[in-house]
Amino acid sequence: MYTPASLWTWAFLIVTSVQAAIVLGFEAYVFADFQSGLTKSTNTSNDAYSRTIPTFLTLYIFGFLYQLLLVYDALRLKNTIQVIGLAVYNVGLLIYAAVQMDQINEAVNKLTPNGINPNVWNTTRPFLVAIPCVIAVGTILMSIVAWKLYDEFAWTIYKHISADLRMKRRYLTYQIYIALLKFDFFFFLGFTIQFVVIVVHKNDSEFGLTIGAIPVTIIILLMAAYWTRRESKAGMIAVIVSANPEHTPLLRKLLTTARCAQILYFAGLAYFLFKLVRMYHGNKQKTYIPVRRSLTTFAVITVILIILTIINACMCTNNFGRGLKPYIQRRKLESEDEKGTMNEMPNLAHGPVPSRMTID
């Protein structure tokens, strides 16, 4: 089991853990205060507003626990790209915290005076203001430590791929792609959770379709990473064929290269763009009002991530068969052996690490 063995790896782990503990503690208090303030006379038409706090708390619990999992994974693999990505991920949580405060204020106003104690906003507001402040401080500290880890992990990638600049660019593209898939998972799932809990009713046909999309999304992301690591064009084609079997004859003719695997990503992009438009236009736009800001935030971030994922997936596919696969497989085998030897910067016996080789 991996254990941090340097000052900055411990610092990164401690900063993210303390931030998660404080924010989740504040969220728990807000949740308890909000729920205790609700009355039995809550209007059915405003029922969605009463579910906003439980949904926010669920997302934050999942979001920060998932962040801690990614922190451990990034430090274990000494993946600088993922470490930097976690700082950006924290910015996403910061934006969501700011949106949360406004939506909770709106929920209290809609439920007042018969649905909730009007004093709830006054008692929860200090904590709602403190949450984005804590995350902002955490983001700054994470960015500083990430910069230090950028230097500390430089020797790892240099030793792994040596001085082959073209191979380092290919490996960098692969690392970015895998990191994007990990962050895609949270924002895909976060959007779906809010949509199912607050917007969709159980007797609605869209409820079953949305629930069914969750395992499909997970499978697509896992298979995307699996076949990319193995540079398997046949495997990536199989993912598409199994996703839409009735089109198999047509796909077999069209899928001459693995670049067609991006069809699934474009389908996901179309789905989120459709949801964005639907939130502000059409007959069902009123059902989105209780969580429209947070859903819009998640949808916009997810659309940006999908576009970046498509670009990097195309670049990774273009690198198939160019010699990167052995490095990826070797890195997986070496990850355990590097625990005790690769945590510190190299000594002068190895010579200085050129600045151009500090990509990870």
Description:
The structure is a single chain. The protein has helices spanning 7-37, 47-50, 52-77, 80-111, 120-152, 154-161, 165-199, 205-229, 233-243, 248-254, 262-280, 285-288, 292-318, 325-337. The chain has 360 residues and is mostly helical. The protein contains 14 helices and no strands. Helix 4 (80-111) packs antiparallel against helix 13 (292-318), helix 8 (205-229) packs antiparallel against helix 9 and helix 11 packs antiparallel against helix 13 (292-318).
Specify the helix fraction band: over 70%
Strand content: under 5%
State the end-to-end distance: 22 Å
The poorly predicted ranges are 238-260, 336-360
The number of E-state strands comes to 0
Overall mean confidence score, pLDDT: 76
Kindly provide the radius of gyration, computed on alpha-carbon positions and rounded to a whole number of angstroms.
Answer: 23 Å
Biggest β-sheet strands, sense, barrel: none
Q: What sort of overall outline do the alpha carbons produce when their principal axes are compared? A: globular
Task: List the secondary-structure elements in sequence, H or E.
Answer: HHHHHHHHHHHHHH
- Derived structural class: mainly alpha
The tally of helices reads: 14
